[in-house]
Each structure stands twice: as structure tokens, then as C-alpha cells.
Write a structure and sequence with these properties.
The protein is α/β, with parallel strands linked by helices. Helix content is 47%, strand content 11%. It has a 7-stranded mixed sheet, with helices on both faces. Strand 2, helix 2 and strand 3 form a beta-alpha-beta unit. It is elongated.
């Protein structure tokens, strides 16, 4: 055991993806408390050779540097760290960035709900304290609000916010059941993780945290990823619907959504056709025709809202870690 941990202590690991964070990564490592048994610094083919820099300047015996021979993105770096932590017998894996924006002093807050059996995955939320939200740049605030709504739709976690927040912790049994080869490797990683966790019915909990912005430079370019994000959100949404509402289980909600969409589309098309015909002839549309158009539209909207209500209520509530012993790698199914 290291850093004063005993055999009864949980084995907590920290994964730090390292790419262009040389100016901050040593300070991040130094701030990680004694409750952590292993620190994995994953050099993602960093142009600043941050892995070599850590090895040359950090004497912390908990630190292990892992190098990628080619850049795999933040998702690839985290998956590499997860795999190393699983192989080393860790219990909980925390992921923090190496740019200094995430306070290592919060690690216990992220780990506690997992060790208590209340959560499988915890995720930072910079929007919890409304007073501190004022420190966040307006562009990030608006962007995160939009991404949060899309993430709720595609992942099914309607009670979460701040989807791009990379401060997370995961129970090792949950990580063990993730399809590492299918999870998005680049900036969509955090959102794709939530989708994958939902297919496992894992319990995810928000952890309040403050936003910190210094002289670090973000590698994220909103204009470059908007289209890619939209396509992946749509893909995950339909995959989640198929997996949760038709392949794994069927309920009244499985009928409400397609029926509601059909009625809504029929009503809109019917209304458009008859409105254009009446407009071309210069006559008023008959009240019966109006009712035939409005009725399926209203019913369709009601069915869709009923489905959304069911989907919101279906957020996973029973931690996956308590069920994981019944699942073997051979029995896993991934969409």
C-alpha cells in the first residue's frame, strides 16, 4: 500500500490525459491527496513531451506515465487509463484534466457516492452554484446549455447538466463492462460515455463544483465539432430508443412515441395540403377539415409528451455495481 493506505482502504486511481498541459500538469499531480493510490498520466502523443517532463520532474511514487504512439484524443487517453487501473486492481477511477481547471481537492466528493453504493458514475456540474456561474464565459454558458439539452435526449439522463465536464469518477465494475472499442475517442467522449452508461442502466450523479479559468488554452473549436456532435446525438438517441424500448424491454411508451409521431406528421401534411388547396381557390377551409387536421396533431403531441414523461421517469436508479457480479463479459450486450 502507498501513501498511508491500508488494506481496508479503497484503491482509488486518477487518470490524467496529457496533451499540451505541460505548464500545469505537475501542479495538478502535487495537489492530489493521499487517498489516491495510483496516478496514471497518459501522454497522448503530446507535442510538448509532457510524459517525459513528468518523469523527469515528478518524484511521486504513485505516478505511472503511459505513452501513446499516436494521438487518440481525450477518450482514447481515458480508456487507456481505465484499462491500466482495471489491470492494477483499482476500485474507483477518477478522471481529471491536466490543465488546472479541476480541483483535485474534490476527489473525495466524487468518490464518496460510489463507495457508498449510491452511484456508479459521478460527474462534475459547474452550473450548480448560480453565483459562481457568472465567472463562466458567456459563449461557454450558452454552448453548455444547448449541449446539455441534446445530451438529455440522446443519453436518457434527464437529471444531469454540464455534459462537457470532464471531471468524473467511475466504479471499476462499471468501467469493466464498457465497450472500450466503441466509445468516441475525441471531444464527444464525455457525452458518449453517458449514452453507454445508460445502456448499462448505471446510476449517474452530478457533483457540484466551481468553474476555474486561468491561462490554459482550450483545444476545442465549437465550429469544427457542431455538425459532428449533432450527427452523433441523433445516432445515440435512436440507438438508445431501440435498445431500451424495443430490444431490452417494451412498454406503453414503446407505442406512444411512434404513434404520436405518425399522427403528428399525418395531421401536419393533411393540414398543409388542404390549406394550400383552399388558398389557391380563395375559399375558407371547412370546419370539418380543420378538425380532421387539428385532432391528430393534438393527439400526436400528447402521445409524444407522454413518452417524454415516461423517459424522464425511467432514469436509472438502482446502481449497476450491485448487479455486476451477475454479469460475465460473455453475457454483455452493447448497441
Amino acid at each position: 500500500m502507498e501513501m498511508g493506505l491500508t488494506k481496508c482502504d479503497p484503491h482509488i486511481a486518477v487518470v490524467i490525459p496529457s496533451y499540451k498541459v505541460r505548464a500545469h500538469v505537475l501542479d495538478v499531480i502535487a495537489a492530489i491527496g493521499a487517498e489516491v493510490a495510483r496516478i496514471y498520466v497518459v501522454d497522448d502523443m503530446c507535442p510538448e513531451s509532457s510524459g517525459d517532463y513528468v518523469l523527469a520532474n515528478c518524484a511521486d511514487p504513485r505516478v505511472r506515465v503511459i505513452r501513446h504512439i499516436e494521438n487518440q484524443g481525450v477518450g482514447g487517453a481515458v480508456m487507456t487509463g481505465y484499462a491500466a487501473a482495471i489491470a492494477d486492481g483499482m476500485d474507483v477511477i477518477v478522471k481529471i484534466d491536466g490543465d488546472g481547471q479541476m480541483d483535485p481537492g474534490l476527489i473525495s466528493s466524487f468518490v464518496t457516492p460510489i463507495l457508498a453504493g449510491e452511484a456508479d458514475y459521478t460527474k462534475g456540474n459547474r452550473f450548480f452554484d448560480l453565483e459562481k456561474v457568472r465567472t463562466m464565459p458567456l459563449v461557454r454558458l450558452i454552448g453548455n446549455a444547448a449541449l446539455s439539452f441534446l445530451t438529455k435526449l440522446s443519453s436518457g439522463y434527464w437529471d444531469l447538466f454540464d455534459p462537457t465536464n470532464g471531471y468524473t469518477a467511475i466504479h471499476v465494475e462499471v468501467a469493466r463492462h464498457l465497450p472500450f472499442d466503441k466509445i468516441s475517442r475525441r471531444y464527444f467522449f464525455e457525452t458518449d460515455m453517458l449514452f453507454r452508461l445508460n445502456t448499462l442502466r448505471a446510476v449517474v450523479v452530478d457533483i457540484p463544483m466551481a468553474a476555474k479559468y486561468g491561462d490554459e488554452v482550450s483545444n476545442l473549436r465549437i465550429g469544427q465539432i457542431m455538425g459532428d456532435f449533432a450527427v452523433k446525438h441523433v445516432r445515440n438517441f435512436f440507438k438508445r430508443l431501440f435498445y431500451n424500448y424495443y430490444l431490452r424491454d417494451m412498454s406503453l411508451a414503446s407505442i406512444q412515441l411512434p404513434l404520436g409521431l405518425l399522427m403528428l406528421v399525418f395531421g401536419l401534411i393533411y393540414a398543409a395540403i388542404h390549406w394550400s388547396e383552399s388558398s389557391a381557390r380563395g375559399v375558407t377551409t371547412a370546419s370539418g377539415t380543420v378538425m380532421l387536421a387539428v385532432t391528430p396533431i393534438l393527439l400526436g403531441v400528447q402521445f409524444i409528451l407522454a413518452f417524454i414523461g415516461h423517459d424522464i421517469a425511467a432514469v436509472p436508479k438502482r446502481p449497476f455495481q450491485s448487479l455486476s457480479t451477475a454479469l460475465s463479459p460473455q453475457s454483455k450486450q452493447h448497441p
